[in-house]
Design brief:
mainly alpha; 2 domains; disordered N terminus; globular; single chain; 23 helices; about 475 residues
Length: about 475
């Protein structure tokens, strides 16, 4: 049954304005996990060169320290669902908030490189949990008529978190006289950058006490009356609460718990649709997007940009990321997922190719020639804009829609795992590749952006306007 039909029968789609404000607060509070996801993923950008200098490590070791958080991300994402089914959605948010606080304090005050890496893994675990629980909770609490818009809060929060982390880094670097290892509040500037995340992490934890548990979880543990109260809160007093509770119970009983075995089939181990999902995830990462958020300050400094300016450019890139995400949110349901992906692929390929060209020139007095420097800067912003308005949003939308009901959960898990692995591969390889040949590195990313065009044209089917039940 479609959500429109449910809404007309139960009144769930006609949330009154007084209830809508409350629901928006609930979704925004849950999306704080997304904010921390973005913030923690990106804040390391401000510490990369200081960590290299303080611990006197080479590019390969540095890459492993930066990328090690992604191991925690994968574990956190894989386990969050089971913990949420056992302890509740709110409890998972609280656990993630505690892990964010612990990771922030530990990363800011490390004894040595090994424990810094450990705190990074713990932070990654929190990121993985937040990446799963936020969208799941919002989908379960939001009235059907507003689910799509409220669900987009998570992605919006991620890109805002990235931007705020870059702004904070830039401000702290200025306060420390442009030196990542400059003294600030008795610590080095990079330590303060990592420690500041305690503030939003504590806020996330406090907000988790102000929002209700998911009605779906409450019904699963037999707390039907409390579930009715929360449904009345978020969907309005006019909702037929008995019908909504019965509807949720029926949906839970009829759900097929997909497993890894359900994905097997076809000539190449997995069913073709699973490979398409994996392909979307891998292409999303192999264009090198996370280089722009993990290493952008290092990248600009490597071609002669002043450290303070390099942090400012990282911040402007994050603003462009927000603008692109808003564009995607506006157009993904209007022009469709596939056209948006193709537009993004073409734009990314052009931006990356221009960066590869600019970085191919020899440095003069430690800097790129003026023309090439400006081309590199503008092209980097073009690349991020086209990624954000297309693949940044479209891939997650399509992964949630493209799989048949009977395999959706398991297939999503495999595709998400592929994304974390691809993310790790790009993050861990960039410093060494950049030492080898920065222009050549961007040629590789350009090739993947170009290859994504025929991949989308040949294999990806449009899911716009289709009910989930239509996915065969």
């Amino acid at each position: 049954m479609t959500s429109t039909a449910q809404a007309s029968r139960t009144g769930a789609g006609t949330a009154h304005p007084d209830h809508l404000g409350h629901v928006i607060f609930i979704a925004a509070a849950a999306a704080m996990g997304g904010f921390l996801f973005g913030y923690d993923s990106s804040v390391i950008n401000g510490a990369v060169e200081a960590i290299r200098d303080r611990y006197d490590i080479g590019s390969a070791a540095l890459a492993q320290v930066i990328a090690v958080a992604l191991i925690g991300c994968a574990v956190g994402a894989a386990t969050a669902g089971r913990i949420a089914d056992r302890l509740g959605r709110i409890r998972v948010m609280q656990i993630a908030a505690v892990l964010f606080v612990v990771s922030s304090v530990g990363s800011a005050l490390p004894f040595a490189l090994w424990d810094f890496a450990l705190w990074r893994i713990i932070g990654g675990f929190a990121i993985g949990m937040a990446s799963v629980i936020g969208p799941a909770y919002i989908a379960e609490v939001a009235p059907p008529a507003y689910r799509g818009r409220l669900g987009s809060f998570q992605q919006a929060a991620i890109v805002v978190g990235i931007a705020i982390s870059q702004l904070v880094n830039w401000g702290l670097l200025n306060a420390a006289g442009g030196d990542q290892r400059g003294k600030l509040m008795g610590l080095e500037a990079w330590q303060v950058m990592l420690g500041v995340m305690v503030v939003p992490a504590l806020l996330y934890g406090l907000l988790s006490f102000a929002i209700p548990e998911s009605p779906r979880f409450l019904i699963s543990v037999g707390r039907r009356e409390r579930a009715r109260e929360i449904l009345a809160e978020v969907e309005g007093k006019g909702t037929d609460l008995d019908a909504r509770v019965a509807e949720i119970e029926h949906a839970m009983k009829s759900e097929h718990k997909s497993s890894f075995k359900d994905l097997l089939g076809g000539g190449f181990f997995f069913k073709p649709i699973v490979w398409i999902g994996i392909g979307l995830s891998v292409f999303q990462q192999f264009v090198g997007i996370n280089v722009a958020f993990y290493y952008s300050s290092t990248l600009w400094q490597s071609v002669g940009v002043d450290p303070t300016d390099s942090f400012f450019y990282s911040f402007t890139t994050s603003i462009i990321n927000i603008v692109g995400t808003v564009i995607a949110m506006i157009f993904v349901d209007r022009i469709g997922r596939k056209p948006l992906a193709l537009i993004g692929s073409i734009g990314m390929a052009v931006g990356l190719a221009l960066e590869a060209w600019a970085f191919s020139y020899h440095l003069v007095d430690g800097k790129l020639p003026s023309t090439q420097g400006w081309v590199a800067l503008i092209a980097a912003h073009v690349f991020v804009l086209f990624f954000a308005l297309s693949w940044g949003v479209v891939v997650w939308v399509m992964l949630g829609e493209m799989f048949p009901n009977r395999i959706r959960a398991a297939a999503l898990g495999v595709a998400a795992a592929a994304q974390w692995i691809a993310n790790w591969a790009i993050t861990a390889s960039f410093p060494s590749l950049a030492d080898w040949n920065l222009s050549g590195t961007y040629v590789i990313y350009t090739v993947f952006a170009a290859l994504s065009i025929p991949f989308v044209l040949k294999f990806v089917k449009e899911t716009k306007g289709k009910a989930l039940e239509e996915m065969g």
